[in-house]
Amino acid sequence: MTVAGMLEGVEQGTYSLAIDAMGGDRAPDIVVEGMDIASERHPQARFLLVGDEVKLAALLKRYKRAAKSCTIKHAADAISGDMKPSVALRMRQSSMRLAIDAVAQGAASGVVSAGNTGALLTLAKIVLKTLPGIDRPAMAAIGPSARGDVVMLDLGANVSCDTRNLVEFAVMGDVFARTVLGLTAPTIGLLNVGSEEMKGDETLRRAADLLRASHIGPQFHGFVEGHDIAAGTTDVIVTDGFTGNIALKSIEGTAKLYTGFVRDAFRTSTFAKIGYLFASGAWNKLRQRVDPRRYNGGVFLGLDGVCVKSHGGTDDLGFAYAIGVAVDLVRYEYKNKLVEGLAKLRHVASTAEALEALQASGGSA
Amino acid sequence: MTVAGMLEGVEQGTYSLAIDAMGGDRAPDIVVEGMDIASERHPQARFLLVGDEVKLAALLKRYKRAAKSCTIKHAADAISGDMKPSVALRMRQSSMRLAIDAVAQGAASGVVSAGNTGALLTLAKIVLKTLPGIDRPAMAAIGPSARGDVVMLDLGANVSCDTRNLVEFAVMGDVFARTVLGLTAPTIGLLNVGSEEMKGDETLRRAADLLRASHIGPQFHGFVEGHDIAAGTTDVIVTDGFTGNIALKSIEGTAKLYTGFVRDAFRTSTFAKIGYLFASGAWNKLRQRVDPRRYNGGVFLGLDGVCVKSHGGTDDLGFAYAIGVAVDLVRYEYKNKLVEGLAKLRHVASTAEALEALQASGGSA
After folding, report:
1. Using a CB-CB distance cutoff of 8 angstroms, which residues of chain A are in contact with residue B250?
2. Which chain A residues are within 8 Å of B264, Cβ to Cβ?
3. A249 and B258: CB-CB below 8 Å?
4. Taking CA atoms, what residue in A is nearest to B276?
5. pTM to 2 decimal places
6. How would you classify residue B362: left for phi > 0, otherwise alpha for psi between -120 and 50, otherwise beta?
7. Which of A53, A62, A58, A57 is closest to A33 using CA atoms?
8. Are B46 and B5 in contact (CB under 8 A)?
9. Which of A2, A272, B127, B303 is the most exposed place for a label (fewest CB within 10 A)?
10. Helix, strand or coil, per DSSP, at residue A223
11. How far lies A259's CA from each of A196, A262, B287, in Å?
12. Do β-strands B298-301 and B188-191 pair in parallel, antiparallel, or remain unpaired?
C-alpha cells in the first residue's frame, strides 16, 4: 500500500506517526514489539513503519495488532549509532530519513526513533525545519519528582544559549507540560546557582525579566536550583543544553547508584533477605514509580512536526511509552498551541523592546 | 590566654585551627559539640574558638574535652546568614573575620565555619589571598560514588571559568584527592556533554589539551559525563562553578528523593513494615554509607591558608567531619603540595605556549 493509499483510509480523529524501525540497539524487534503495545493503548493511531521490508513483514506475522495498525515503507539503509550527523545527512534512503521525510510531506504528523541522537536532531532540523519565530529547537524530557512529573529542557541540543533561546524554551516547556502532563497552568523555573534575583549571569537575569513580563509571567516562579528538579518545585525547568544535559545525567546516575545501594543492602544478611521477601510488594510498586521506561522519550521541540527520540537501549515497553508521548503531542495539537504561545511572546517581546528603547532615549513610558 | 600564649605551648606535630563559633543555624552549640567530637578524633589538634566569650565559656563547662583542646578568642559581632558579603566585609569584629585573621597572622593554619557562604568566600579571598600562580580559588567537596569517594570542583565559587581556571582546578583537585582521600595517583575527568574529544566548547577542549600535556597528563581520563559522577569513573571531577553547583544540588536532591521513596515504600503495608524490621540492620548500614554528614565540608581551594565551609544546618557530627577535612589538609601539607603542583604546571604551560608560538611563527618544534 502506498502512503497516499494509507492516508485515504484514515478516518476522522486518527493520528499517523512514522516509526524508524531500524534505530536502537535491538531494532527492529523491540520497535515492532513496542508498536504492538502502543497499538492497544492508542487504538486511533496509525503507523508508517519505515525499514527493511523483508525483516519487518516477517516480524509483523508474530504481532497481529501491530500489523493491523501499520503500513510498511521500505528503506534500503539504516543509520548506525556511531555515524556522524554529516554522513547520516548524505544517506537519503535511511529508515530515519524516510520517516522524517514522511512528516515533512504530510504523510505523518510525527516521527519516533530510537536511533542515533545527533543524526536525528540534524536531520529533523534540516528536513522539518524550526517553526517560524523559533531560533533553535530544544530537547525536552519528563522525569519523576517528589510532587509529580517534571519537564526539563534543553537537555543538550544547544551547548550555549542566549536570552532569546531560554525564553523560547520556557514557552515550549509550558505548552509541552499542558499537552503531555495535562496541566492547565504549569509553573516554570529557570535553573540557576541560587534563587535570589541577582544570582547568575546577565543572560539568565534578562531571561527572567522577559519571562516575568510575558504572557506566562503568572506561571513563572523565578530562579530554581539543582535540588528543585527532584523536589518538583516547578512543573517545568528551563536551562541551557550544556547544564541540562549534565544535570539530567547526574540525576540518572544518582538514581542508579541509590537503586544499587538498596539492592546491596538487601543482600547483606539473612535477616535482610527475609525483610526483602516481606517488603517485595512495596518494592515492586517503588520500582514502577521510578521505572526509567515510563520516562522514555526525549522530544525535539520547536520543529515543524513532532519528533520523539527513544533511548537506544530501551525495551518494548519503553518504546511504547515513547510512542505514547508522540501520540499525546499530535492528539492535543502541540504544534498549533506552540504557534499561539510564540505569537503572544512576540507581542510582549516587541512591547518590552519598544519600552526599553523609549526609556533609553529619555522618554517616559 | 592570648593567641601568642597559646602558640607557645604548642608541641611539635600539633595543628592549630581557628573555629568560627557563631556561624550556622544552631551556633554556637553544635560548633562546640562538634569540636568536642573532633578533639577526641584528632588529639593533636588545637583550636582557637572565636565568638561570644560569655556564651562559649558557659558551653565549654559542659564539654571538658573541647575545653582542654581550645582557647577562646572573643568576637563582639556575628555575620548573619542573609548578610551581603559587602556588608560582612565592613564588620571587622565578627567571629568569622577574626577567625580568618588568625590564619592570615599565622596563629592558625586553617579556619572552619558553618556561616554565610558568600561572606566566607569573600572574606577568605581578601584576607588570606589566593596562592601565587592561581587565578581564582574554587570550592570542592567529596561525595559518594559506586567506586569510592569522589572529589568535585568548582561547586559555585566562579559562575564562569576560562581554560586556565579549569586547568588549575584540576591541579587543586589532584592534590586534594591525594591529601584527603589518600590516593597516590587520582584519576581526573573534565565534565562535558559527551566523552568524545570533539564535544563541548573551545574552553573545554583547550583545557583537555593542556591537561594531557601537563604533569598530571597520565592521570587525566578526558571528558566525563553527568552519570560518571555517581559511577565514580574518575576520582576527581573538574567543572565550572555554574555547572558544578547545579550538578551537586541535582545529585543531593535526587538522593533525598530516592531516600524518601524507599521510606514511603516501607510504610505501604503491614508486610512492608515487617520487612523493614528484618532489614533494619542493613538499612542502618546503608544510611551510614550515604550519610550527608560524612561528606560535610566544602573546601575553598587555592587560598594561602586552609578554609573549610560546613553546611549551616549540620549537627555536631557533621561539624566534626568538617573539622576533620581541615585537619587532613593541614596535617598532610595541602598548601605546600599545591604550590609544588602549580610550579610543575607553569613549567608545562610555558613550554606549551612557547611551542605554540613557535609553530604559529612557522618554525618546527
Report:
1. 226-227, 229-230, 247, 250-251, 254
2. 286
3. no
4. A275
5. 0.89
6. left
7. A62
8. no
9. A2
10. strand
11. 34, 5, 13
12. unpaired
Query: Are the Cβ atoms of B275 and A279 closer than 8 angstroms?
Result: yes
Q: CB B144 to CB A257 under 8 A?
A: yes
Q: What residues of chain A lie within 8 A of the CB of B277, using their CB?
A: 275
pLDDT, mean of residues B26-51? 96
Distance CA A6, CA B111 (A): 74
C-beta atoms of B282 and A260 within 8 A: no
pLDDT surpassing 70 at residue B351 = no
Which segments of A51-116 does DSSP mark as H helices, in order? Answer: 53-60, 64-69, 85-90, 95-104
pLDDT in tens, A323-361: 999 999 999 999 999 999 999 988 776 666 665 655 555
Q: How far is A303 from chain B (nearest CA, A)?
A: 22
Residue A4 scores a pLDDT above 50: no
Quick check: B277 and A294 in contact, CB under 8 A?
Answer: no
Element at B275 (helix H, strand E): helix B270-289
Residue B363's CB is within 10 A of a number of other CB atoms, namely: 9
In DSSP terms, B49 is beta-bridged to B19, B72
pLDDT confidence of residue A11 = 47
Contacting A residues, span 259-288, partner chain B, CB-CB under 8 Å: 259-262, 264-266, 268-269, 271-272, 274-283, 285-286
State the cell numbers at A18: 512514522
CA B21 and chain centroid, separation: 19
* Residue B115 main-chain phi, psi, to 5 deg: -85, -170
Give me the residue from A159, A253, A254 closest to B200, CB to CB: A159
d(CA A41, CA A324): 8
Asked if pLDDT for residue A154 goes beyond 90, the answer is: yes
Contact A312, A25 (CB under 8 A): yes
Q: Where are the alpha helices (DSSP H) in A290-333?
A: 316-331
**Is B78 in contact with B25 (CB distance < 8 Å)?**
no
Yes or no, beta carbons of B227 and A290 under 8 Å apart? no
Q: Phi and psi for B195 in degrees, rounded to 5?
A: -95, -10
Q: Set out the domains of chain B in order of their start, with CATH numbers.
A: 1-129+303-332 (3.40.718.10)
Tell me which chain B residue has its CA closest to the CA of residue A240.
B243
Q: Which of B199, B205, B229, B250 to mutate to test the interface with A (most CBs of A within 10 A)?
A: B250
Q: Is the peptide bond before B186 cis (omega within 30 degrees of 0)?
A: no
Please give the pLDDT value at position A272. Answer: 79
> Residue A260: which H helix or E strand, with range?
helix A241-266
Nearest-Cα residue of chain A relative to residue B259: A258
Asked if residue B52 has a cis previous peptide bond (ω within 30° of 0), the answer is: no
Q: How far is A286 from chain B (nearest CA, A)?
A: 6
Contact criterion met (CB < 8 Å) for B226 and A250: yes
Tell me the β-bridge partners of B142. B151
Do A145 and A229 touch, CB atoms closer than 8 A? yes
Q: By C-alpha distance, which of B331, B342, B334, B337 is closest to B305?
A: B334
Chain B: nearest CA to A59, how far in angstroms?
35
Kindly calculate the radius of gyration of chain B based on its CA atoms and give it in whole angstroms.
22
From chain A residues 224-243, the ones with a CB under 8 A of any chain B CB are 225-231, 239, 241-243
Is the per-residue pLDDT at A172 higher than 50?
yes
The letter for the amino acid at B219 is Q
Q: Give residue for cell 556533554.
A: B193
Contacts of A244 (CB under 8 A, 6+ apart): A152, A153, A154, A155, A156, A191, A237
Nearest to A36 by CA among A69, A74, A14: A69
Kindly list the residues from chain A whose CB atom is less than 8 angstroms away from the CB atom of residue B253: 226-231, 251
